[in-house]
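Response to reviewer comment R2.3. The reviewers asked that we include at least one raw input/output pair. We reproduce the pair for Large ribosomal subunit protein mL64 here without editing.
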Amino acid sequence: MNICVRTKFIRSSLVSSLHRLSTTVPEIEQNDQVLIDDTEEFQAREAEVKKKRNKSRLSAAHFNLVNDRRPYEEPHCLAHLTVKYNRKMYGKYGVASGVNPSLCWPSRKEIEEKKEYEAVAFPYTIRQVMDAAAEKRREEQLRIEQRDIEVATKVAKLEQWKKELNDKVAKKAAEVQAAKQKKERLVEEVRRHFGFTLDPRDERFIEMLAKREKEQKKLEKQAKMEAKEKMMIAKLQQKNVELSEKS
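Raw output as returned:
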């Protein structure tokens, strides 16, 4: 019997407590006021706390750049007042930059200057540029074809050139061999002149060798002149024969 009474008492007290809380909470929420300290001292203190929280040791501008924000909220030099700089800030940070978007559109003067520049820098129309490019490609193709023909012609003459080169080398070698034999013959003649073996460095040997070489050159020159005279005589005789046949 006592247990039942106690249970009913606890249940009734719990219900009354919940009812009291449900009726008093709205009153507390309505009467509760949030106090916000917006004084200059508080704002300065918050700024100081925020500054101390920044452990990067970066300047304000660099810190803003790292955090993808506009580096300077206020202009610090004349360059920050230019239209070019403000366009750049708007292009990079958008509306967050605080720049008026109308600055991004070129002025009438800038449009006229751009037109004047393009008229001087690019005086030709698109069709003219395309035609010039096509003509340049045709000239390049023609140059390549001519080069191919030239290479093919030279390749065809390669064997002939190799033969001419070999003949030239053989002729040069023959001339060197003939000069060597001539030198040896003169040396042998000088030795026979003295009748005994003489050192080629001896002054008498050198003098006699020079004399023999001079005589040999004289004989060769005379032989060339005689051959030339014979050739001229043969040409004259041939011409006389031709004239006699015509007459």
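Residues 126 and 132 are 10 Å apart (CA to CA). Residues 47-107 form one domain. Further pairs are available on request from the corresponding author.
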